[in-house]
Structure formats: C-alpha cells, structure tokens
Amino acid sequence: MNSRDNKGIVSSGENMSFWIDSVRPPEFPALKKDINTDVLIIGGGLAGLTTAYCLLKAGKKVVLVEDGLIGSGETGRTTAHLTAALDDRYTDIEKVFGEEGSRIAAESHTAAIDFIENVVKNENADCDFKRVDGFLFLHPSDKEENLRKEFDATRRAGLDTEWLDTTHYVSATNSPCIRFPRQAQFHIMKYLTALANAIAKMGGEIYTSTHAEKITIKGSVCNGFNVLANDVVVATNSPVNDMVTMHTKQMPFRTYVIGARLPKGKLPYALWWDSGNMNTKWFTAPYHYVRLQEFDDEYDLLIAGGEDHKTGQADDEGINEEDRYDALEMWTRKHFPQITDVVYQWSGQVLEPLDYMGFIGKNPGDDHVYIVTGDSGNGMTHTTIAGMLISDLIQGKDNTWAELYSPKRIPVKLPGRFLSEAFNMAKQYGDYIKKGDVEEGNQLANDEGGILSKGLRKIALYRDKSGTLHAYSAVCPHLGCVLQWNADEKTFDCPCHGSRFSKEGAVLNGPAISGLEKITVS
Fold it and tell me: 326, CA 20 to 30 Å: which among 175, 309, 336, 403?
C-alpha cells in the first residue's frame, strides 16, 4: 500500500504503519454540495470520530470532513497505548496544576479507557481490545528517587499503582518499576472502522478526500463548497484555524517506531515505558515505549517506539531520521532479545505542550470553534477525552475537566521553557542564510530530495523515481520558516511549527493549510 493512491492520501508518510498495512483506512464519498449542519468536525482521526460519536448520541446533526481517508493522519501512525501513565509525569503536573489538577488528569485518562471499552462492547468492535498491565521503569540516566516521587504522585492522583523492586520481562535492567494495573491496548484502525460505521448508522455524514479551508465561527469551505454549522470542531492534530497563538504553547516532535516479530508465548501482553533520557537537549525527555500486538499464528508483533527529536531538527543531535531506526532496534534487542526480524518501521508526529497538559475546548477568541491539540504521547486517551469534553461543551453541560484542558491558559508557571522554545523557534529563521543540502538539482538521485539555496531564495527539490525533477518554494506557507528534507518519510518538514508536505508539495500536517508553491526550474 502506498502513502497516496487513486483514492487519496492513505497515510501522512512514506512508511506504512502496521495498522494501515493490515486494515485499509475507511473511505467515504467526497463532498460535492453545499450543506447545513449543527456541528462541522474537521479531521477524521480518533478525536474527530469520537467527538462525532458523542454528539450524535446527544441528538446533534453532525458532518465530518477529512482531506485524506479515515485515520490517514497521525492517528494511523500511533502505537495505540491506552493508559493513564502519562508521559508528562504526575510530579510535574502536580507542580503546575496542584493535586486537584493531577487528580483530574488521572481521572480523565482512566475514563477515556473505560469509554473505549464501552464502545467496543456496545458496537461489537472486533479491534483486539485487551486490558493489560503497564510498567514504568528507569532510564539509565534517571534516578530511583525520581521514580519513587512519581509513584507517590500517582497515588495522590488516585491511581491504584504498585511499586515493584524489579521490572518483569525486560532484560538488561535491574530497575525497580511502577506497575499500572488495568491499562489497555487495541488495533486503532479496526476501532476507527467500527466508530465510522456506528457514526454512519446514526445518521452522521462523513466525507473523505475533502479539504477544509477558510474556517470561521460559521463553518468552512470544503472542496469549494460551503458547509454552514452552529459549531465547528477542528480536530486536525495541529489546529489549522490558528496562525500563531496555540503554536507558541506547544512544539512538534517526531517519534520513531519499529515492529519486530516475536514467537508467541515469549512475553505477556503488557505495556512498558522507560522514564526518559534526562540528558536530552530537548525540553521534554524522549523515552521508549513498548507493547505487543497479535500478528499471525506463529508470531506476535513487538512494537517499540522512541528516539524522538524536534521536527525538522534531527541533525542537531548528529543523528539523521533514517538512522533513528537503527538506534531504536539496538535498544529493543538489548531489552527484548526474544525478537527476530524487524518487519515494520514508521514515524509519527506529536505535539508537546509546554505545561504538560493538552488543549481541549474553545479556540481562544472564538465562541463556536473548538480545538483539540497537544496530545503529547497519550494521543489515544487524550483524543477520547476530547470527544467527551467537547460534546459536553457544545451542549452547554458543566464538565469538571474543562479548566485543566482549556486552550486559553498560558504556561506562566514555566517561563524558562517558554522563552527557551521561543528562542529555538526564532533560531530556525536563520536557515535563510545557511547553505542548502545541494548546490544543483543534478546532485539528487532518483527518489531523493533536498533544499537548494539561490541567494536568500530556498527551493525544495525532489527527483522522482523516473528521474523527473520537481521544484517548489521551500518556505512554509504558514509563517515563512525554511523547510527541511526528511529522507526517511520523503517529506519536507517545517522545523518551526511542524507543518509537513509530501514530495509532491501537498500539505500533510498543519498548521499550514495549503501546499507548496510550484516553481519552474531549468
């Protein structure tokens, strides 16, 4: 399966995830008429579909549009952990939001797992849902006292965690760990398919291959047609309706995944995470995350992720995107030596909020536009929380989670992080005076791309498999940052705010909403 076929965008990268390779993303007709509705939802990932499902249950008329196929964005590139063990630690959340905020974070993510389990039962969703234990163990750079503090914080947050003196089933570590009981996992594309079918059965309208632009409080223009709505939900991972505000509160990171075959019975189904690299240069500590997935009669698939870096800035650590998989495989074989061959590799993009909690609710300044973003490494539960919370907000219901996740909040308690990331973002504009990757287009091999400098002008070049050279402006149409070539996923990535573009110049990820300007070259 290719990332793009004659039906549209299947996935936002060149490498196919196991989920999309094993279950084709659902597709629906493209929008071809003007339409009126109660709620317009933009984005066909887990956030959009869960919100649609909840609103339809509440009796609302719903239209959902997706510019690719269902799950073709970051939802289809997840590892599908369902957990209240947050990658932004409860010790940190408690410092910023207090014990009550930490308790609400634990409560809401736990409720999200329960919600998914109920959907699985009510919709008879055959999606490999399993309740499993989760284990958080020490990264070599971390200290046991930090893990002990995290354990205490999880207990104050109301989680039924347990301290274990050793980490079960993980080789090459003598670390103690925190056990998180009754976490879960599932096959995300099977679950999305069940959700989409339920939405259609309830009368919800879904349109794929339908691009939304000119988003206002009254609706949007989709495929050139007007969709008028009382309320609009922007569920596009990075909010494409917002130019600046939200993009100063969160930063884009790329994360890497491998899937390796593992003989059945060698490991139990469970979730594992290390506590993250404390020596990182990034403002959030990259960590490793592992789970099992049913694969075939002889093997399970061990899915391991990690080796994160700021989007478009992989080379700042001297490790390019392609080599991240080698580092991840080396770590995985050390800790789970039972694996055999690696049969999948893919990457995804996550948005890390500066103050640890994601953003769900009214877009700042807009009464009838709602956003969900800043999912961090807990996208499956965070987007499910969004469906429940936004549904309540649109209906005018009080929800005790609303304040914690409010997009209006400003990370005032972490001024150092805010200023550091603002400086990092500003520094990327210095790429205008740097040399490009290539000096001439003939330096590119087939199926290879790069950035060419002509004075201050930056040109994104891609030579396709037949040898034809394609050229586009290498300036991101969002806020003018110079793009970087990602040789792993064959995309042009923005190191400022995370917009990504295909080798054909089409926009894959916001906040940009338009593709790259095509340039004629000799």
Answer: 175
pLDDT digits (tens, 9 = 90+) for 108-167: 999 999 999 999 999 999 999 999 999 999 999 999 999 999 999 999 999 999 999 999
CA distance 62 to 57: 11
Alpha carbon of 285 to those of 247, 253, 388: distances in Å? 20, 11, 29
Hey, what are 315's tokens?
């080379």
454: number of Cβ within 10 Å: 10
Structure tokens at 145: 């006292």
Separation CA 486–CA 468 (nearest Å): 19
The rounded Cα 492 to chain-centroid distance in angstroms is 17
Pairing status of strand 271-274 against strand 130-137: parallel
More confident residue, 14 or 330: 330
Beta-bridge partners for 493: 484, 500
3-class secondary structure, 6: coil
Placement of tokens 């590892």 in the chain: 79
- Are 275 and 137 within one domain? yes
Looking at the structure of the chain, the number of domains it has is 2
**What pLDDT, on the 0 to 100 scale, is given for residue 440?**
78
Q: DSSP readout, 80-120?
A: -EE-S--SS-HHHHHHHHHHHHHHHHHHHHHHHHHHHHHHH
Q: Is residue 372 part of a domain?
A: no
Distances (CA, A) of 278 to 19, 63, 271, 281, 283: 31, 44, 21, 9, 10
Domain that holds residue 442: 430-509
Length of the chain: 522
What is the tens place of the pLDDT at every residue in 233-276? 999 999 888 877 788 888 999 999 999 999 999 999 999 999 99
The CA–CA distances, whole Å, from 492 to 15, 312, 348, 451, 489 equal: 15, 8, 14, 9, 9
Same domain, 329 and 436: no
User: 125 in a domain, yes or no?
Assistant: no
Biggest CA pair distance of the chain: 66
Burial track 267-299 (b if 16+ CB lie within 10 A, e otherwise): beebbbbbbbbeeeebbbbbbbbbbbbebeeeb
Give the CATH number for residue 435.
2.102.10.10
- Quote the tokens at residue 332: 């995985």
Crossing angle of helices 46-57 and 188-201, in 10° steps, is 30
Per the domain annotation, does 243 fall within a domain?
Answer: no
Residue 81 belongs to some domain of the structure: no
DSSP letter assigned to residue 29: P
Last residue in a domain, options 352, 374, 401: 352
Same domain, 304 and 439: no
